Amino acid sequence: MFIGRKLELQTLKDKLENDSLEVGVIYGQRRIGKTSLIREAINDKDYVYFLARDAGIQENLNELNKVLNKYYNLPSINEFKSISDALDKFNELSKNKTILVIDELPFLAKAYPGIISYLQGYIDDNKREGKAVKLILSGSDMSFMSDLLKDKAKPLYQRVTFKIHVKPMLFLDAIKILDGIDNVDKAKYLAIFGNRPYYLEKIDKKKNFNTNIKNMCFDNTSILIDAPNTTLPIGYSSNSTFISIMIAISNRKHKIKEIADALNIDDKAVSTYLKRMQDGEVVEKRDIFNGNKKTIYYEISDPFIRFYYSVIYNNLPDIERGYKEEVFTSNIDRINNIIEHGFEDVVNSYIHELNIDRKLNKTYHDIQKYTVDNSLLKRSVQIDGLSESFDKNSLLVVEAKFRDKDISLKIYEHLKESASIFPNYMEKEYYLISKKSFSDDIKNIKDKNLHLISLNEMMSYKK
After folding, report:
1. Distance CA 455, CA 347 (A)
2. Residues 218, 311: one domain?
């Protein structure tokens, strides 16, 4: 069953149902949900769907022959001699508004470099003839797909009529996948897997959290043991420097110098690798709230890949030998620590959805973590989420606690003191999210800018 992606799905359907020529580019990380989105949008329409292979031109031509022969009910012995011949025939025989989907376009371009120039002619010819053709181009190679849109020298520049960047799901969509699971376990799963359906859909709802994590992450038969090969850009999982950088970041080395020191290589080399990883959406370059360049840090985009290189990678030999129980038990403290820190991202995902639903007192920019070792308070300051309102008058301050005790007034007062290093705001809006609940002394405070939300309340959010 298809869940979520309402905005992306409606955009795609609107483009496919109008009377204009449309060329759409749909891009995003591997296993993020691009193909599911496309198939949901076209399932009741007239379409040809071609999934390109990471193979040579003949293998791709053979596959395209099969797809077109099936669509036109032609004998299987019918064979087009080239990719362009096959697509020419499709263009000749297709009706107005017939949808052509080329999924994983970068693979086809690798096998047949002329495909992009061919598509330029395909688009221009149909535009000249006034045909409302619908062409959908999808791919996971972020650099390649980005160039289609931005590089003025590329044949499709300014011929693309719309684009959809498929990202992790919204918080509410993610918890719908986990419907029927205990709320605390939902939070744990989201802390490890993020809002990514590829992982969340593999959870066995009949089994408890520990059993699922053992089976999914530490069993030698689990497909997730090979997650880097299936979710990261091709080549990353076999490149020792990329792996070393991901291990360093997973172990909380987030700044360029910290990573360079851990790898014992030059800062500039690390910076070059990080730029490539950022272009591929493997890592995110995050600015700590105040925008100070000294506080730029890097985080692995996919929470499970972060978990993988923190817990699974170094234990692969024992996992392959079948010691899943022992590996899980010996790493339980590390796993719990990852969950506790990952809960901060879960909460910020929830607050982000409140923000886009206009449920906060003000509308805010993206929520960012804040960490500084030497503050004006003469102590370190760590705030789980901060954001400035669009009118620049309010500061959003978020605190997330995944602990088996209530959040107390003392924690709130400490948070207010931490936020006092930002004095130039008329108002500060505080959101405290607790795994359990809150002590009576804080619950008795009457303040429209103080919001106390338990994990159960967070998981029960409805639009």
Report:
1. 9
2. yes
Question: Are 154 and 17 members of one domain?
Answer: yes
Examine the domain organization and report whether 329 and 436 are in the same domain.
no
DSSP 126: H
Residues 212 and 322 both lie in one domain: yes
- In-domain check, residue 61: yes
Whether residue 194 lies inside any domain: the answer is no
Residue 398 tokens read as 């978020």
Answer whether residue 172 is part of any domain: no
Whether residue 152 sits in one domain with residue 25: yes
> Which tens digit of pLDDT belongs to each residue from 152-185?
888 998 899 999 999 999 999 999 999 999 999 9
Return the CATH number at 57. 3.40.50.300
Residues 6+ apart with CB under 8 A from 357: 463
Phi-psi group of 232: left, alpha or beta (phi > 0 → left; psi -120 to 50 → alpha; rest → beta): beta
Distance, in Å, from the CA atom of 398 to the CA atom of 446, rounded to the nearest integer, reads 18
Q: What is each CA distance from 259 to 93, 216, 293, 294, 311, in whole angstroms?
A: 56, 29, 17, 15, 18
The answer to whether position 192 is within a domain reads: no
Give Dmax (Cα) for the chain.
79
Mean pLDDT of 354-364: 97
What does the pLDDT average to over 234-247?
91
φ, ψ for residue 232, nearest 5 deg: -85, 160
Task: Let me know: does 165 contact 67? Beta carbons within 8 Å.
Answer: no
Query: Is pLDDT at 373 greater than 80 in this prediction?
Result: no
Q: What percent of the chain has pLDDT over 70?
A: 98
Do 404 and 312 lie in one domain? The reply is no
Residues forming beta bridges with residue 430, ordered by sequence position: 397, 450
Q: Which domain holds residue 283?
A: 207-341
Name the residue among 150, 172, 168 with its Cα closest to residue 160.
150
pTM as predicted: 0.93
CB atoms within 10 A of CB 417: 12
Q: Where are the alpha helices (DSSP H) in 18-73?
A: 34-42, 57-71
Report yes or no: 453 and 398 within 8 Å, Cβ to Cβ: no
Domain count of the fold of the chain: 3
